[in-house]
Amino acid sequence: MTRLKDNIKTSVIEKIAYKVTKNYLYLLLFLLLIGLIFLLTLPYPKHPDMFFYIEGAKVIKSGGLIYKDFGDLKPPLIFFIYSLTLAIFNESNIFLGLKLVGFLFEITTAFLIFLLSQRIFKNKTVPLSLSIITLILINTGVTTWYPNIFLFYIPFLLLSLIFLIKDNFNFSNLNLFISGLFLGICFITSTNLIFYSLLYPILLFYRYKNIKKIILKTVTPFIGFIIPIFIVIIYYYSNNALDDFIWWNIKWQGKYGNYYTLWLRIWKFFYSFIITWYFLPVYLLGIYSIIKIIKNKDINLNTLFLLSIFFISLVVRFSLCKGVERYMLFILPVMVIILPYGFYCLKPYTKKIYLLVSIIIVAIGFTINQIEVFKESESWELSIEKNREVIEYIKKNSKKDDKIFVFNRGGFEFIYFYSERKNATSFILAGQHLDFPYL
User: Over the stretch 348-360, which tens digit does the pLDDT of each residue have?
Assistant: First the structure.
């Protein structure tokens, strides 16, 4: 890694980076200014999943329980984040609130990318560059920027990784405990993130090469890891809803996750890369970085860490069966973190070509996708207007405390929201679950 520092020459960019990162407050203000560009230009986020999460948040607000009064296989944290947003902004301003929440998570992610990469690459320019790149890439996709599970998990994972490598991988019990604690929060955001727990035995084995010490050290992050899970279990047990929690999160999720055959899962995995072609420069340089680490046999705790999070991120992404854009947020942050290694292995003229081509590809993707974002926003408004007659009929022919049932496979949850009526059952997407092959 020392070579990476030596290859960075003092430049205008480096001087700017030094001034901006001289104080963390300056850095946050700088990232906020960049983030505001996207906050002010993007429309209010509206996506089928958002209406779904809002209905779950309304159940929590009214004193109900996710899984018992609102069936879904997603872990609970996102519903509580939406519920908190709903409590602060109310239904009338919920989309403004969610836009601000998404913005907050983006800025936090960019800031934590800086902190993590600073510990790896030991300079100012690289971490700042990666923070800016992260903000741009998140807002380049059509569905990567709206408030969803795949955006919410990132800060918690980055915090887990930061404490894991803190103090130059000293693996103190406190750091390991806090790292495990944040990974536990990741788990109640998206259960497939449990694969990152493999980092502990991998890095500890390289450091100590003593089975007894590795086992003892691994216990510490495990204790931190189970605390958020234990709190969730106690919460549902005390509310007589533990069976519902287990059914949705283990039994039904197992069926949902295993529906695809292996070959179809493999195709969906690679298809995700194809549809996110605008991230191609990041993918290619990330893979090149891994190849160079392996080829150069440059293995130390830093590079082993990079290798590990790269392959684990692929496993995490592969564990989800759909081939959709937003799932690539399980890979993108890790790819960004490992970029510098490959970049500084390139020849000078190759670096210039790479930067030029990358800017062109991402700029084209960003432009196309932003047009698509506004089209989708208009399409949502049009869909709502097309169903306005249905919504008004429900409002005129029922009382506000009456309940309704909308049989749908996803995409019409907004009828509950705009009619201001609660769901009559705990299955808001009953059609989706009854028609199981929708996967």
Answer: 899 999 999 999 9
Contact indicator for 54, 94 with CB cutoff of 8 Å: yes
Q: DSSP label at 423?
A: E
Under the banding of pLDDT at 50, 70 and 90, the label for residue 15 is low
> Rounded to whole angstroms, how far apart are CA atoms 279 and 273?
8
- Give the separation between CA 369 and CA 371, rounded to whole angstroms: 5
Return the bridge partners of 422, or none.
403
Q: Distance (Å, rounded) from C-alpha 419 to C-alpha 172?
A: 54
CA distance 433 to 439: 10
Torsion of CA 320, 323, 328, 334, to 10 degrees: 60
- Give the integer Cα–Cα distance in Å for 81 and 87: 10
404 forms beta bridges with 423
**CB-count burial class (<10 Å; 0-12, 13-18, 19+) for 218:** middle
280: which 2 tokens? 């191609």
Per-residue pLDDT tens over the stretch 59-109: 999 899 999 888 887 899 999 999 999 999 988 899 889 999 999 999 999
> What is the rounded CA–CA span in Å between residue 436 and residue 429?
11
- Residues 111-128 as b/e (b if ≥16 CB within 10 A, e otherwise) read bbbbbbbbbbbebbbbbb
One-letter amino acid of 71: G
